[in-house]
Amino acid sequence: MVNHERIKEEIRVLHMKSKELLSKRAFVNFEKRYAHLRSMQLGLSPDRRDLHDEEKLEKKFLDEYFDLLQEYFPELKGKWENKSDWK
């Protein structure tokens, strides 16, 4: 689970529209967690098919983070999504 306060902090940075303050490490962690939550939500997890309330809240924050990143910095999001560009 990603700490909700960490996601909120990255959302706050996005609202500041400061590319220099964004964390690629946070993006990587958020992307992995988001993929895990989506797989559970889609029923691809063998353990369960529904998200718990805390996971739903976490997914809501991650949705907001990725939406804002796409809105404010689409080129950066695209670069970070292309894992072959990571150094």
Secondary structure: number of strands: 0
User: Which ranges are low-confidence, i.e. pLDDT below 50, for 5 or more consecutive residues?
Assistant: none
Question: How many helices?
Answer: 4
Order of helices and strands: HHHH
Percent of residues in helices comes to 55-70%
N-C termini distance? 26 Å
The SS-based structural class is mainly alpha
What summary fits the major beta sheet? none
Shape descriptor reads: globular
Mean pLDDT: 90
Q: C-alpha Rg, in Å?
A: 13 Å
Beta content: under 5%
Give a verbal description of the structure:
The chain is mainly alpha-helical and 87 residues long. It has a domain at 52-79. Helices cover 68% and strands 0% of the residues. It is built from 4 helices and no strands. It has helices spanning 4-16, 24-41, 53-72, 74-81. Helix 1 packs parallel to helix 3 (53-72) and helix 3 packs across helix 4. The longest helix has 20 residues, at 53-72. The model has no long low-confidence stretch (mean pLDDT 90).
Q: Key terms for this structure?
A:
87 residues, mainly alpha, 0% strand, globular
Summarize, please:
This protein has 87 residues and is an all-alpha fold.
Topology:
Blueprint: H1 4-16, H2 24-41, H3 53-72, H4 74-81
Helix pairs in contact: 1-3, 2-3, 3-4
